[in-house]
Fold each of these.
Amino acid sequence: LAKTTQPISMDSYEGQEVNITCSHNNIATNDYITWYQQFPSQGPRFIIQGYKTKVTNEVASLFIPADRKSSTLSLPRVSLSDTAVYYCLVGLVISGGGADGLTFGKGTHLIIQP
Amino acid sequence: AAGVIQSPRHLIKEKRETATLKCYPIPRHDTVYWYQQGPGQDPQFLISFYEKMQSDKGSIPDRFSAQQFSDYHSELNMSSLELGDSALYFCASSRLLSSGNTIYFGEGSWLTVV
């Protein structure tokens, strides 16, 4: 499974755009990149998933360069409620006998200040 | 939309006792995953099932076992409980598609071993 590296923590302010970059140098051809948000004592919440180039949904954008060795989660105009831990997961999601469990690395503690 | 349902939400057991956690996946999801998250730690993958068969195994102790039933719900059985088993246990589910595999998490079951 590809190992991921993210910044341990980041600070920003309300209304700003926040970009969190994840490094995954040994990503495999079939691996997808998925980002989750987790609040204390709650289950991880799916944010966005992509394979290559750019993916956008109603809450975030995911930028993946051509070599796929990194990815950047972009959160537009953050608010205090975006304070959470953000995890980048990379792994083979479909194998011959089903899906492999994705491995959580060290997430990024994002703190949004007023 | 229906989410992953876990029960019980909270459980207190004594050392050496047995505990069983239940997970009801999102309707039409065929894959179930179990994760353990200790205090201040990142989620650790335990085990997964696809179509009622074990599909991947992580850092699940030998004292733990799990299965997925014909209605796709899953149970995690933990025996000879130790203090270190105190954690938040997440169940997640997904439906395998050729276009990817998005994993959705439940809110977790808190296990406290005293």
Amino acid sequence: GESVGLHLPTLSVQEGDNSIINCAYSNSASDYFIWYKQESGKGPQFIIDIRSNMDKRQGQRVTVLLNKTVKHLSLQIAATQPGDSAVYFCAERGMEYGNKLVFGAGTILRVKS
Amino acid sequence: DAMVIQNPRYQVTQFGKPVTLSCSQTLNHNVMYWYQQKSSQAPKLLFHYYDKDFNNEADTPDNFQSRRPNTSFCFLDIRSPGLGDAAMYLCATSRDPQGHEQYFGPGTRLTVT
């Protein structure tokens, strides 16, 4: 669904620690999910995606986990770096949304040096 | 590098004065999207073009129009900007209309005075 919150949840982590950003999605029939990273003043940047027939996918330093039973998506970032500080959005796609991407509310990640 | 380009990056317009934002892409993607993003919120889809087919979101105000003269370019026209239209406007492209990975431009920050 559409994000309406003005206060994004914030995750603060120490540089070098692992980060886990969570997302609860809306539609049990959604078949495709994406994580985007958005730095201040920039457009969203693709990080990683996953289809509903998978429950885990790994990229470089990132892992996405999908739990369809509870409609939960998470993004794990290994060895978090200051450059990872940004807002992270999950997005889902499904026929009920006309096959368009619907973005979640976003989470702010702050990395402390 | 192939990319999505938005001009200008910052635009100031007066209340009620028409303004046009532009987007171009070198990805040769079939679909181009316009999103509105307000502070601390997720991007909100305004409309998209699949080739020359225009697809408006049901809740997009009539004040917002779009043109796509060719594959590479897409314009967002705001006929009579109000103070509430101040936002970041993001252009994105994708290869197909099923909303798979979308590539975002850097955005245009619109200020209405």
Amino acid sequence: QQQVRQSPQSLTVWEGETAILNCSYEDSTFDYFPWYWQFPRESPALLIAIRPVSNKKEDGRFTIFFNKREKKLSLHITDSQPGDSATYFCAASVTNTGKLTFGDGTVLTVKP
Amino acid sequence: NSKVIQTPRYLVKGQGQKAKMRCIPEKGHPVVFWYQQNKNNEFKFLINFQNQEVLQQIDMTEKRFSAECPSNSPCSLEIQSSEAGDSALYLCASSLGGQDTQYFGPGTRLLVL
């Protein structure tokens, strides 16, 4: 059973639109949820992260909305730019191990 | 920007050969993780260390894979007898602790022919 699921697999938006990437998880002991983005031929880089004490985390154009009861979170990218085109991974971990469990990623394409 | 260093960036081995890759964690980060990312972008946790001690590892790691993080030397991940299915991007990440952000190195891309 996959512990972290992402949808959609791929998403195309026009420049200036808001992209919404979804993530859900199974393990209620997860207490840290980072989002990483990965560009072709590069390694993942941290974009933004949230802990369950909050239901929202904002950093510029990037916002995480978190629903602990439903075990769901989403990443909203407002005013999308072509440079935002990348694969986005939702991950989750438990503090005492730190081991990250990743979703399968959403490939975002922003068309100019 | 991550300051985790991984070498080599690319590694080509024949089946049955040993493959060894190294990682220097970000300065001051005592926790090191190794992940495997396959061609389908799926991540698999392999092993993690706090200083020189293994915290957690998966069964696959215990059989053909070995890893260590000696003091004052780079961490390393070695595959004793490479198989075609081991072809992947091997990512090293470091952090201050279990609850802290993991920063990834550039990865070692292994191709097993």
